[in-house]
Design brief:
2 domains; D-Maltodextrin-Binding Protein, domain 2; alpha+beta; 3-stranded antiparallel beta sheet; 14 helices
């Protein structure tokens, strides 16, 4: 890193020798000569916002390496060592379980979405209304399990989380805490493919049962309160690293919940950037940028729906980000100004 800064300094010195304002150039492109090693999560609903951040970093003169796609454990280990510098998809408190990787080596920065990320269990509204399904406890009833038993094993099939995702640990905890192991079969294959199968069953008039989060294309295609409803839990029970948040699982005014207030069993999450501390200390413009950026949940919903409709290539992703930036140019320029002023 020191060598790249030295080279950048030499270049600026040459520019000054030719009568150019080196200070102005340095402020305009504070990332000149510096590479950001960017990561993104295995859930593709986070890729759109990653590309918006990448575009902002490029505007500041940074070179982008990646983004490399990582599960939670390898990302948090890599960011703590500096093997990657950041991602913008930290979910807290869901990712509190990786706290051991912070300790002066990595940190949360800014809020992409504050308190706007909900999680929980849903079923299609038609089946919920016809059979009085309101709680995850209802899946202990044989007649309810039978409705959602796709593979004929006597258990209700629920689309859950693939191994390595933060939600996997909480769902596993819930299965034991609510004594549901003998009643629910967790589908832990690729999430998007599993949800596509569930959507196809729903379109054929069959019941569906799944875990999801917001922002996510699932609740863009399946409208909350019209197509699907959130279920409740009888009482909050979270893993040890989230025990102090059990009072925060009951929320008021949740659109599409079967009850109000709604005990979803999960606290609302903040989506935050997580970055290597040493890298941030050497690059105050990056820290300032991460502190400034905020992307509306509805914008992420809309882009995720476009991905689900087939616009899911890397080229589509980059185009979606650039289109959103053009539509929100004033806010984008404000983020860049704050970053440039941090030098």
């Amino acid at each position: 890193m020191k060598r790249t800064h030295l080279l950048a300094g030499v270049c600026l010195g040459l520019l000054a020798a030719f009568g150019l304002d080196a200070n102005a150039i340095a402020q305009e492109a504070p990332g000149e000569g510096v590479t950001v090693k960017l990561a993104r999560p295995t859930w593709d609903t986070g890729w759109f916002q990653t590309e918006i951040y990448a575009e902002a970093l490029r505007e500041l003169g940074y070179d982008i390496e990646g983004p490399v796609t990582l599960d939670n454990p390898p990302f948090y280990e890599a960011v703590s060592t500096g093997d990657v510098h950041l991602w913008v998809d930290g979910w807290f408190p869901l990712h509190n379980t990786y706290e051991r990787f912070f300790e002066g080596r990595a940190e949360r920065v800014g809020y992409l979405a504050k308190g706007g990320a909900l999680q929980g269990y849903l079923v299609d509204k038609k089946t919920a209304d016809e059979h009085g399904i309101t709680s995850i406890e209802d899946f202990k009833k044989d007649e309810i399990k039978e409705l959602f038993d796709v593979n004929g094993d006597g258990k209700a099939d629920m689309v859950a989380c693939p191994p390595g995702w933060g939600c996997e640990e909480v769902i596993d905890h819930h299965m034991d805490a609510y004594e549901l192991r003998d009643h629910i079969n967790l589908i832990t294959a690729g999430y998007s493919a599993s949800m596509a199968d569930a959507l196809a069953r729903y379109q054929q008039g069959e019941p569906i049962f799944f875990y999801t989060w917001t922002p996510n294309w699932t609740v863009g295609v399946l409208e909350l309160g019209e197509d699907v409803v959130w279920l409740t839990v009888d009482h909050a029970d979270l893993p040890e690293d989230q025990k102090d948040l059990e009072d925060a699982t009951t929320l008021e005014g949740v659109v599409g919940c079967v009850a109000d207030p709604c005990n979803m069993g999960w606290p609302a999450n903040d989506i935050r950037a997580v970055a290597n501390t040493a890298f941030l200390d050497e690059n105050p413009a990056v820290r300032a940028l991460l502190e400034e950026i905020e992307i509306p949940i509805q914008a992420i919903f809309a882009q995720n729906a476009r991905m689900n409709d087939g616009e899911d290539s890397e080229e589509d992703l980059q185009r979606h980000a650039k289109e959103w930036i053009e539509e929100n140019q004033e806010a984008f320029d404000g983020w860049l100004e704050a970053a440039r002023n941090a030098q």
